[in-house]
Design goal:
253 residues; alpha/beta; Metallo-beta-lactamase, Chain A; seven-stranded mixed beta sheet; 26% helix; globular
Length: 253
């Protein structure tokens, strides 16, 4: 049995928890340590269980809390060399372990697979986490889902899947043209429809739960994202994440 929770998900900060009874890992630390600690405690998660932090890329909403979290919890940080080099100086952990896509890392009983992806960052990766035959995927900040992402997504029993924007809300919204183009580009973010099509095409036969993740505050709404996925609700548990607080803890197994 493995337990998952989105401690934070959105452009103001991202952090995803995967744990068992004795140990856990975090994917990204885009909030302050104080905020992340408070959210873990509010959900009954023991921070002492955290054995490692993995960072997807150098944007602030994914790394700004990494340095302090690593120091305060005394946990190692794993990221690509490109991510470390691209990160703002005060966000960089004092030390890190360099990772490469497709080379798995063993953390206790967890096996973590970095998955190269298309996003406007320096050598960004998503992650698939395996534990006793269960696979959890964290797939956010993806412009276009490449074959690598599709391959790993097909193996997952639960997903944190990006549903960043609704196309009409983005195009008719207040963002300047260059930003609209960046978000909707091949190295930007997944729309609700793109995520729905990806899941429809690549879901594992035993997929149990999907967290709709990294929703834009300006270009999406929880109701719009849920409505897009309503045809799949009879097959999978569909959960929303929240930029202002942690999600429910969900057991997968």
């Amino acid at each position: 049995m493995v337990e998952i929770c989105a401690l934070a998900s959105g452009s103001n900060g991202n952090c995803y928890y995967v744990g068992n009874e004795e140990e856990a890992i975090l994917i990204d630390a885009g909030l302050s340590f104080k905020q992340l600690l408070g959210r873990m405690v509010s959900k009954g998660i023991d921070p002492r269980k955290v054995k490692a932090l993995f960072v997807t890329h150098e944007h602030g909403d994914h790394i700004r809390g990494a340095r302090v979290l690593s120091k305060r919890l005394d946990v190692p940080v794993y990221m690509t060399t490109g991510t470390f080099r691209g990160a703002f100086k005060t966000w960089k952990p004092l030390s890190f372990t360099a990772i490469e896509a497709m080379e798995c890392i063993q953390i206790g009983d967890f096996t973590v697979w970095p998955v190269s992806k298309q996003h406007d960052a320096s050598d960004p990766v998503s992650f698939r986490i395996d534990y006793q035959g269960i696979s959890i995927g964290v797939f956010t900040d993806i412009g276009t889902p490449c074959d690598r992402v599709r391959h790993h997504l097909r193996q997952c029993h639960a997903l944190f899947l990006e549903t960043n924007y609704d196309h009409d809300l983005l195009m008719n919204g207040p963002y300047p043209y260059y930003l609209k183009s960046r978000i909707s580009s091949d190295v930007g973010h997944l729309s609700n429809l793109q995520a729905y099509d990806l899941l429809s095409a690549c879901a594992h036969p035993d997929l149990q739960c999907v967290f709709l993740s990294h929703l834009s505050a300006e270009n999406n709404t929880p109701e719009t994202a849920i409505a897009q996925f309503s045809p799949l609700m009879a097959k999978y548990r569909i959960e929303l994440t929240d930029r202002h607080g942690p999600s429910d803890r969900v057991r997968i197994g």
